[in-house]
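It is worth pausing here to work through a concrete case rather than discussing structure prediction in the abstract. The textbook approach is simple: state the sequence, then state the predicted structure, then interpret. We follow exactly that order.
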Amino acid sequence: MSLNVWKCILIIITLFGLIFLLRNITTGENWKNQIVSALYKVQNWNQSSNLSGSLSTFHHKSTFCPHLGKPPSPEEELEQRKLLDSIAWPQPPSDSEPLNLFQTSNPAHSLFSIITSKNNHTWYVGDQLEVQIHLHDFKGRPKNYGGDFLLARLHSPKHRAGVAGQVLDHKNGYYSVGFPLLWEGSVQVDVMMVHSSEAIAVLRRLRENRPDRVLFVSLFRSGLTSETTECGTCLSQDKGPLCNFTDLHSGEPWYCYKPKMLSCDTRINHARAGYLNNIITDRESLLFQSGVNIKAPIHANTTNTITVLPSRKGTADLQTYDSHFLWNGDLFIFIVFVVIVENSNQKSDPMKLATSGYYYQDAWRPLGGVAMRHFNAASVTQCLANKVVYMYGDSTIRQWYEYLVAVLPGAKEFNLYTPKKGGPSLAVDSTHNILLEYRCHGPPIMYTAIMANELHYIANELEGLTGGPNTVVALSVWAHFTPFPVEVYIRRLRHIRKAVVRLLYRAPGTVIVIRMANPRALNRDVSLNYSDWFSLQLNVVLRAMFKGLNVMLVDAWQMCAAHHQPHNVHPPSVIVKNMVDMMLSYACRTSTRKTG
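Step two, the predicted structure:
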């Protein structure tokens, strides 16, 4: 057969592969991220297919007072079941109890190794680095089951560069981490254990069975008479009659115990009153020791550093994926093949997410999606001129508001005599016709005190917006939901999603940006209510629930996990700037498409 015939056959196969690829890429997902994820999955195919039997997994129960609030429809129940299944987590074998610290995962006795490349310790930009981790217990014995929560990062201090690793749990004590090699020079691997699998079991029990461990109260007052009673999404009716403060529009439930001497309509404010103590045993407390088994480093078996050489001629450089498509022959067919493999198995490891971007010189470079620009004061003003920016949610979106107020030279903040944390807060640049507004979301908001009439639900705020191409909406809903059963979060996102769909229907040009959860500093007490494990699972749910909608998700998780700054619920300004730049790049993408 002639060479020309073979070329024709190759072109036909490639075209069929491309058609299949385009059909299988999910709407709204980044094909570049799927390629990175798929390449890594194929590399681990043989290894993970010969593993020991699967562990049992945690499945959620409906323990969030289903008798209160509007019952979900059959379609909503089905969606909820699928979402809960998607975040099911491996649990320790039952014979590991009663709990013994010496049998649990210990980072100090665990090790990771960099897997030798096929080029004999030579790596190039565009390659994939694989790291293998093996966990051991406090007696140095190898673990033979999974479920530990690990984070990994590849970084270069010299270049202020970093990328989060993709962790794959083999459920036998071994874990693999994949890193795309995106820049040249010396790079080093850092691995930490956030929580052991045994600690995760405790967290899961608290989330499902003790949603009352965060205490809320409201003050009721009439004249000189005042009373304070307990409030929440789930209250026992055995302790007395309830005041029903369920939102009439969205159906979001909220209740307080009725004051003994006052009526329900005398409610003044809402506040977090504290936390329940002694909710875990002394043995369980040993699983939450800072620096020992909470965010403790796992060290390398030999070295944690490699040198990455410039990309080889004819090989894909992942840094060029933002502007170029890979068309050269065999490698393109291979990518088509691995993406088909990726899409043939939609059930993913909840710990394994596609790489969304990386840092270089402290500037975030997304791997696909909207072209990233980096804004100064003048270009922020130009972008937001004649726009209204609404920022709704928790204090992590308030950071965006505060950043914009600080960076816009002409912005003047008005004193509305409202609490800084909850808002509402308002700033205006009258010269350039820019309006910025921040408002916190409704209960369960965990601020010290907020007036009851300022408890606005995001869904209701969205329903009141006219929208349009000069309207930017930024949302962040996660930090105050981690102590509660996931069903509570699903219900809240469902109401927000419905409002988003209606807003986009009546005003298709409206820009909507959703900030995802990020890792935070942890100790024992913080972990019991606000663990990164809770936040990670909320991220999986959020991503799934807004999949396919014309909204932008800012991957705050990877933007924090990839950076050299310590984890903080309120990331430092360098990260906040990159997040806001992502939002602005999306909001102003029609007028300026080139990277600035």
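Step three, interpretation. Residues 3-46+91-192+292-356 form a domain with the Immunoglobulin-like fold (CATH 2.60.40.10). The chain has two domains: 3-46+91-192+292-356, 363-587.
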